[in-house]
Design brief:
Length: about 240
Amino acid sequence: MRSFFHRNFLCIGHRGSPSTAPENTLRGFEQAIGDGADAIELDVQLVAGALVVIHDEELDRTTSGSGRVDAVSLDLLRGLDAGDGERVPLLEEVLELVAGRVGVNVELKGPGTAGPTVDLLRARAEAAESILLSAFDHRELAMARNAAPEYPRAALFGRLDRDPITAATALDAVALNVHRRTAGAALVQAARDAGMATLVYTVNDPKEALQLRRMGVAGVFTDCPGAMLRALAVES
Ligand code: G3P
Ligand code: CA
C-alpha cells in the first residue's frame, strides 16, 4: 500500500491519463498507474444511490449519452460508452483496480457524496494514508471530517475568494488544492507554515511543474502523467 504523500513532489494523474485514455475510466486509471503516476485523481457523483466516477453534470462530453447525469437510471448510465468502449466506473471498481498501488484523490463532486464515500472506504478498510478527499464544496469535506476524520482532506479552491489557509485549517485539511493561476510562493509558504501541503491543478507543461516544485509545491495534477514524469526525470 502506497501512502498518498509518499515523496516530495507528486505527479497525480488528473482523471487518470486523459491525454492517452478516456478520462475517469478504468483504462485511464490503469494507464496512469502503468505510466508511473504517484496517485490518481477522480470525480465522484451520486446516481440512484451509487457512487459513479464522472466529472461533468451532463453526460454529453464524455459519454455516448446526453442530458443530466442525475436524471438517468444507473442501468442506463452504466450502459453508455465513456470512450473506447469503456463504461462509467463505480468508485468501488476503481478502488478495486488500484488495490493500494498508488494514492487515490477522491474529489467529492456531487452533493451528498461525502457520507457514502467514507462509508465505502471504511467498508473496504481502505488505508487512510493512501486516500485524499477533496471538494470545492467545503460542506462535503466538513461532513467527511465529521463522519470519518481518519481520511485526510484537501480543501479545493477555484478562485481564492476567501482566505484559503483559514478555510483549510477549519477543515483540519492536510493540503490546499489550488488552480495553477492562483498558486504562488506566498501561498505555498503560508500553507507550509500552517502545516499543509499545496497541490496544483491542472499542469501539463513540465517547465511549469519544475517552477512549482522549486516553489515548494508538493505535487501537480496532470492530464499526461507519463510524459510529465519522463520530462521531470530528464530535468532532475
Ligand atoms: O482536483 C483538482 C481538479 O480536478 C479540480 O478541477 O474541474 O478538473 O475537477 P476539475
Ligand atoms: Ca476533479
